[in-house]
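Can't paste images in this forum, so I'm doing it all in text. The chain is below; anyone willing to post the predicted structure tokens underneath?
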Amino acid sequence: MEAFKFEELEYVRPDFEGAKKVWEKATEQIKSAKSYAEVKEAMKSVEEMECHLQTLVTICNIRNTLDTTDEFYEKEIEYIQNTYPTIVETGTEYNKAILESSFKKDIEAEYGKEVLVSMQREVDSFNPALVPFMQKEGELTTRYQKMMATAQIPFRGETYNLYGIEKFFEHPDRQTRKEAFKAYSDFYHGNEAELEEIFAELITVRNEMGKALGDENFIPLGYKQQGRSDYGQEEVASFREQVRKEIVPLCEKLYKAQTKRIGVDEIKVYDEKFVFPDGNAEPAGDDDYMIEQARKMYHDMSPETGEFIDFMIDHHLMDLKNKANKASTGYMTYLQDYKAPYVFSCFNHTIFDMQVLSHELGHAFAGYQAMRHQPIMAYYSESTDIAEIHSMSMEQFAYPYAEQFFGKDADKYRFAHLQEAITFVPFGVAVDEFQHIVYAHPELTPKERTYEWHKLEEKYMPWRKYEDDEFMERGGYWYHKLHIFLYPFYYINYTLTTMGAMEFKKRYEEDKEQAWKDYLNLCNAGGSKSYLELLKVANLSVPFEEGSVAKAISYAKKILLEAIGEEE
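Text version of the structure:
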């Protein structure tokens, strides 16, 4: 691999016309092919083109999120969002040619069936009538993202962005927490009209896309976009119900114990992140110190993770410090031409920073491994419901190293992080149910939609209490979740995969060597198999099956209840 650093990589505007020509030529080659060798050659030319095209688009996206006020990349993003949808049809025709080829069996024999399944899904997800809607969706999501990235929240004489203000939710002084949460809430309330407008348009646009494919609304397309081929809405609904029965009562116990521990009469929303009366765990050093500790941790964990972290640091493939105008998000993405993952986040000197170093780097490690073990780009990344197992399990594997990052606060970190992993799940399924409601009922007014969130909080988060905050009382909390705007139907993945991560946690404790082997096999497999098949590769159970949620969380539940002095 050539010596490169991310900031030195050249960006040129992607050649969409050239891409179109490559697809067209390959489509003709496949249609007239007399041998599998000819089909393979055509596929190779497309693979090289798509790798390069995707790499340029990704460089542009990263640089846009690094500074959302950089006009050059803002214009490039606009160009890409408007132009890319116009060539999707050509790509779809290429996929159709493969699916209709008499050499389809040879492709399956060499690469497995998943490449064909994903091509079929892409064909089923596209219709030329979608193009203007895709362009409009891109325009709306960019508008939302910029609004979040440039947020300026006044608080006690200073101005903070969204990540900056969240640090105060963990402040030892209750009045400070309360005022900080109110400042955060006021930002969304102050922008409510524009947010209502953006989301109402997104619902309309996405539902029109669903209708263009012959569905009643966007939901089936949303599932296809998430790469789901072996489960649907019924399975997800049954999982949400298991969460309500098994996890919500456990969370109520945990928050009851927290109320007592931090010495308040009733826990309010601004108390939820304040876990210990003498303050939460804080990183033992600055941003650079944390990154250096991550290098040591990954070197100790395994030879594979050691090689990976050196690659990330040496090639400048992480931008983690919080800066003005950076997008308020965290993500991992791929630079296919370089077989390189890239990680983006905004540190805020809380336990969140450690989550970034284990969660996003868990994604990146899986990408790094898949890019080195899988023969085609289609398998470099996996469906989103598997991807979060990589990241959330890595968070658990990092527990033995907590002393390096938090010193004397290591136990505090472990408890708070594990509690957060469990208490997050009811919120996660509420986000999912909310999206099912709003796309199935486009007739709801913005205020009625927001009230649906209020009802979901009562169902899944009965402990949630607001104070002097009319906006949040009536359901405004959902506005802060960018996935609802940007990545529809993604969010359930975090909850499904929490189950896998909790299973890995238990097995890592019982037989570290075997658990790591299964985890590595899962990472190496990339997207070469379906969701249920990949669970088998990792020896994980299926979260939709009755009783699976109780089983998956049993070990974590035991640890947490023992820590708060409760019986099961």
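DSSP finds 24 helices and five strands in the chain. The first helix runs from residue 16 to 32.
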